[in-house]
Each structure stands twice: as structure tokens, then as C-alpha cells.
Amino acid sequence: MPVQIRDNRLILTKPLLSGKINIPFAIGLLAAAILLPLAIWRDHLESAAHGWSFYFSESLLFNSFWLLFPFLIWLQLICIKQRRLTSVISLLFFNLLWAALHLVAYPALVWLLSAIGYYHTFRYGQTLQYAFVTYFIWLVVIYQIVGFLLLLLRPAADNNRPLPSQALANGFAQNIMVSRANERKLIPVSAVQLIKASAPYITICCGQDKYLETGSLQKMADKLDPSLFLRIHKSTIVNLQEIQSWQSRGNGDYDIVLHSQEMTRLSRNYAANFKQAMARLTQDAQSDTPVTVFP
Fold first, then answer.
1. What pLDDT, in 10s, does the model give residues 216-274?
2. Are strands 291-292 and 263-266 parallel, antiparallel or unpaired?
3. What is d(CA 226, CA 135) in angstroms, rounded to the nearest whole number?
4. Rounded to whole angstroms, how far apart are CA atoms 220 and 68?
């Protein structure tokens, strides 16, 4: 089954956006193959209803509008994979750019095809004005919907690939590949203080530096040495060697202070494992009074 339910969440266990067939391109091609003859048939009916002459070749030329969708959606997917769109506003503007690209590419396609194979070459500006009046709203709606769907499907596919890490020792990663803008680099796991989940991303905290990566917290936890990296919350993993102190909140939860003075919360559900792990590191299992742990 490509879909499973784990921890009350729907998990895609097989990539949807990879393989021999590019699914968004195939869907776009199928949609174009269906919409193109329907659009030509609509032109025929409209011409018959108004008593106009119907020219199949001209209808085919102007309905080449639909043929751009498979290629532009495919390029949209590639760009979404490469860019880290972390806000709804950025995604809205990003999708709007693709609608604008389709709008300006369509008159160029009509001009090129008419110049090659038609008795009359249709001017770019005239076709652009026609496209703006006829199709602009449809383009905005379609590319916004497609863009959001592609973004939702992307983490599902990415989660099925192992997180980038290098130099495995004793079965655990010693380095992690991170990215920032166009830069990719390896950081030692010893430099990692916290790893926080904010679906569909994880944030790797290394002092003042923070790196946003696509993936799941569980996938990352599986790669790290559990004697040094411990889950202290459903959305947090901490480097035990970076802990300076911890103090009870009085309700079963704890406040943990790192050497960087950053504070994070230890959930009561993970407190027992935390105490055992810290006892192994510090030989001190006291928990209900403030305890300072020195490196």
C-alpha cells in the first residue's frame, strides 16, 4: 500500500513525484489532450450558434493555449523542488509568476506557429490582449491550485528518501548535509544543539546558525546516536552534551537550558528516558531540583 496511517497521520510510503513517469507532466498532458478537442468543439458550437464561419486550423492554433500546461507545470514542479517556500504569501507570488509566464508565452507560441504554417501571422500584442481578457483569471486559479498541490506532494516524496548525511560510524551519522540559499555544506553532528520539527520541515540548530531542511524528525533520529541525541518532546531532539541545566516546572515538564542559553521544554512523556540518559552521562539522577551539568 502506498498510503499508511501512523500516529494518527496519513503517511505516503511511496514517492508520488518520482519514477520513470513524471506524474504532474503526465496529468497535464492528459488534461491538455482532453481539453483541446473540447475547446475546438466549443468554438464549433459557438460559430454555429452565431452563424459564423468555422475554421478548424484557426481554432486549433488559438487553443494551443492548453498545450503549454504540461510543460509549464513540469517546470513549476522542478522550481518548487529547488526552492524553499516557507510561507503562503511567497507561494502565492511564486504561482502567480507561472500564470504570468503562461500568459506571455501563449502569444509567442501563436505568433510562431502562424508564421510557420499559416497564411496570416497573428501579432503578438493582439494575441496577448486577447489572452489577458479571456484566460488570465483561469491561469491564476489553475496555477495556484497546482502549485499548492505540488508543494503538498513534495514532502511526501522527500520523506521517503533518506536525509542527506555522510561519514557513518557505528551505524550513526557523524556529519549532516545542510543547505542555505545556494550553499550546501557538511556540519558535524557534535555541532548540532537542537533539532525541531515544523512539518513538513525540520530546523537544525547549531548555535546562532539554523538550517531548514525537508524531512521528518523520526528519519533524523534514526541516523543519530541515541546515547547522545535524545527526543525530549514530540517535536524536539536535543544533543545531551549541549545541556547546561534543567529544572522542573512542577507539573511533570522541565525547562532545559543549553550552553548557548537557549531554553527548550522537556515533556513529561519523555522525562524518564531523559533522566536515565543524563544519569549515564553525569552520574547524577536528581531531577526535582535545579541541576547544572558541566562539560
1. 888 888 888 888 899 999 999 999 989 988 899 989 899 999 988 889 999 999 999 88
2. unpaired
3. 56
4. 39
Residue 65: left if φ>0, alpha if ψ -120 to 50, beta else—which one?
alpha
Cα separation, 201 vs 143, whole angstroms: 23
Task: Give the Cα separation of 170 and 33 in Å (integer).
Answer: 54
CA distances from 231 to 117, 172, 275, 292 (A): 66, 16, 12, 20
3-state helix, strand, coil in the chain (%, to 5): 50, 25, 25
pTM of the model: 0.45
Exposed e or buried b for every residue in 2-18, given b needs 16+ CB within 10 A? eeeeeeeeeeeeebbbe
Give tens-digit pLDDT for 144-198. Answer: 888 888 777 654 444 444 444 444 556 788 888 888 777 788 888 889 999 998 8
Three-class SS state of 32: helix
Where in the chain are the domains? 3-158, 165-292
With cell 500516529, the residue in question is 7
From residue 120, alpha-carbon distances to 142, 164, 252, 260 in Å are 31, 55, 79, 71
Please give the helix or strand (H or E) that residue 263 lies within, else none.
strand 263-266
Q: How far is CA 145 from the centre of its chain?
A: 15
Dist. CA 216–CA 13, nearest whole Å: 13
SS3 256: strand
The Cα-based distances of 91 to 33, 97, 147, 261 in angstroms read 28, 10, 8, 34
- Please name the CATH architecture into which domain 165-292 falls: Beta Barrel (2.40)
Instruction: Please give the full DSSP string across 97-121, using - where no structure is assigned.
Output: HHHHHHHHHHHHHHHHHHHHHSSSP
